[in-house]
Design goal:
With 339 residues, the chain is of the alpha/beta class. Helix content is 47%, strand content 16%. Strands 7-6-8-5-9-11 form a 6-stranded mixed beta sheet, sandwiched between helices. The protein has a 3-stranded antiparallel beta sheet with strand order 3-10-4. A two-stranded parallel sheet has the order 1-2. Strand 1 (28-32), helix 2 and strand 2 form a beta-alpha-beta unit. 44% of the residues are buried.
Length: 339
Amino acid sequence: MHRKTALLAFVASALVASGIGPAAAQKQTLKMAYWAGPSHHMVQTQEAWAKTILDASGGSLVIEIDKAPLAKPDGQYDIVKNGVRDLVWHVPGYTAGRFDLFQAPEQPFLCPSSTVCSSVLWKWYNKHGLAAKEFTDATLVTAFTTGPFSIHLTKPARTLEEIRALKMRVAGASVPVAKALGWSVAVLPATDAYETLQRGVVDGTVFPWEAVNSFRLNDLTKFHLEIPGGLLTATFMIVGNTKAIEKLTPANKAAFLKASGEAGSALFGKYWDAADERARADARQRNHVIETIAPAELDKWRPLLQATTEEWLKKANAKGVDGQKLLDDLKQMIKAASN
């Protein structure tokens, strides 16, 4: 009897060790692309998110993040759609026309912080079932935004006329804003900001504060003009290859989903705001000039920037939704989350 019991115990432990037994958790890996360079805070932020997935899965699901870019920022969606990577951090502003509804929070003066707008974006987008319209060949994993965009310059400028005399680097969501304001621009990805500022190709850029540190601009841009509510906000998404996610075991998939969605939005928002605060504090320590746009000056900008909102409404309506109703609800949700 004892010999039989010992044999059964041995067989059971062998099955568990081999991954056949029910107590065994299958280890799996999802490969995630990265593009922003080693100094960007998203190195640590993506790792922090990956750890929440690892912890939720009890160590069974690993997110393996690339150290070097496989594609430029505008190519991220393609590499996840085509299965080159299982996950990517994508900037929808770099794939114009594809994610117009998702980009609603990018309107001027709308988002007070990443913490507020990241969580609201996820809730609002899902509340209205908008992923069904825009994600047909990949899976939206989580959503987040930057903090408010400011203007960062190599020389002082406080008015629209002064900025129009300069050359500004813009990309993605900032392109229509710059167009509405009549700026002279160079449309270049964020990763080109340092080189073009250093060479004098451009005189300034629009970014959330964190980018001043993340792209090492703090030695180049020493004049900063802040706009209440932000000149704009950029939206971001973590996108997954649908087949890769479906191949996860039920336990690993549950852990992945638990750390994604609203939980992921909250994490990215928190880390993004912290990066903004660090960058702004660093600029102060370096004795940079940080000013807030004068109210009378901002009043000159507002009617011009209304064109960007009208353009978004036109795109939203073209996708078969009531753009004004959606935007009003988004504003109300942001207001409620800000109180």
